[in-house]
Amino acid sequence: MLKKAASKYRPFPPIHLPDRQWPNRVLTAPPTWCSVDLRDGNQALAVPMNVSQKLEMFDALVKCGFKEIEVGFPAASNTEFAFMRRLIEDKRIPDDVTVQVLVQAREDLIERTVESLVGAKSAIVHLYNSTSPAQRRIVFGLGKAEILQMARRGTQWIKDRLPRLAGTHVRLEYSPESFSATEVEFAVEICAAVMDVWQPTPDAKVILNLPDTVEVAMPNVYADQIEWFIRHLPRRDAAIISVHTHNDRGTGVAATELAMLAGAERVEGTLFGNGERTGNLDIVTVALNLYMHGIDPGLEFGDLNGLREVYERCTGMVVPPRQPYAGELVFTAFSGSHQDAIRKGLRAWESAVEKGESIHWDIPYLTLDPGDLGREYREVIRVNSQSGKGGVAYLLESEFGIELPKDMQREFGPIANDEVDRLGREVRATELKAMFWREYVERATPWHLEHFATEGSDGVVSCRARMVRDGNAVAIAGRGNGPIAAFVHALVAGGAPKFEVAHYAEHALGSGEGAAAIAYIQIRLGDGRTRWGAGVDTSIELASIKAVVSALNRG
Ligand code: KIV
Ligand code: ZN
Description:
Elements: E1 32-35, H1 37-43, H2 51-64, E2 68-72, H3 78-89, E3 98-104, H4 107-117, E4 122-130, H5 133-140, H6 144-160, E5 169-177, H7 184-198, E6 206-212, H8 219-232, E7 239-245, H9 252-261, E8 266-269, H10 283-291, H11 304-315, E9 332-333, H12 336-354, E10 378-379, H13 389-400, H14 406-423, H15 429-441, E11 447-455, E12 461-469, E13 472-480, H16 483-493, E14 499-509, E15 516-525, E16 530-537, H17 540-553
Parallel strand pairs: 1-2, 1-8, 2-3, 3-4, 4-5, 5-6, 6-7, 7-8, 9-10
Antiparallel strand pairs: 11-12, 12-13, 14-15, 15-16
């Protein structure tokens, strides 16, 4: 990179608009949405969609609630033309949906475009030509007057052919392509010239689409351009102001939102921001940004995962994992403190809802309810050497239903952390469970239990057990006020160090008759040291006996 960037690049000249109004406004209603997935999105694919993919995408867009859909560039190829005809002839366009087609200001292309529309109920013919100084000079080698003339002529050619579309409600959209890089005065002049030819009225408006074809400045500059344009356009009441942003500087969404504050009434974009280079505006994001402020966007994304699947299948593109709202990871919390805050927030919200208190969504780290989009909040709990005992215990409980007593958490937490430290990486839940099993449940030396039986009643229990100690069989027997006490007595009488049971807990691991139980036992040795043990068995009595052996083996 250059040390002196200014020797190669220039700042973007600001718009003179000292009394700009848009910063003081607030959005209260959605714009009219127009999907350009099948045109701008499609033309930017390495392998453009075939007819059946386009049809599937069209149906998905209709299901989302788009009422204006740019379906293609019918004069550009036979596939595009055939697709338009297929939609019309197979009557696949709902009555309340308007199809839009793009065309350059060339008579032969306009002729073919009009032909493609015959039989449609309602259509927007989208005419464009490039207007920026660089396009005028470098690409066309034309002056302003000739560029103006091109737009006028294109409009007239479309107007001349309206009788051919007698049964179709036709509207005109005009785009001064690369509007954001065009002098605002010239943009107004050329749009006014198009209006002079078309003669729109407040009841039959023209759509003036002002593209941020390539983002060239900050979003506030684009908003200034939109407000300036609107304030200087003659016969403003006969035009719908539309915006069409791309994302070259990563601010397509911001530019659109500020442009809406500046007066834009219509927004063009694509699902998940597919489109040339860095993409078109992501309509899903703008719509859901409105939704999270309590504004009904007029689009339905209640099955966002399903929509993403259709999109990925049809376009071959992948929605990045951190894409707002739609990405795989956007409703996943990794950080323990975030998870804690979200859990508390959800609990508070659910209890307020249960009590019938009207409460707005206000959950830390979750800007909207993933359930509204058919999605779920997920916690990813991974244990690393920095994780506290709480994380270890939570993971064992949430993944396997293992509810360690608090004091046992304090013992196992550091054991798990040392092991993770030794591995030098994060561990998954199954690995953590295996550690717990190795440390407690599978401890079989020096003592190993082969058989255990009890008899007796009235508060006195006798037990017999066959043990293996350091490889040698040992038969032991004891008495106590219950099976555990009897077993402790038998072990100590059979040569184990003196110990007593300090703490006991158990619970089922799963449900049903054959479900296993897990018992946790803490023993206190003669020198005052304590040790936990755990045992698992389908018999709760045997689970506790095994837990005693586990604790003893850990002594
Ligand atoms: O980005 C753009 O300028 C376009 C126009 C054709 C509207 O896609
Ligand atoms: Zn575009």
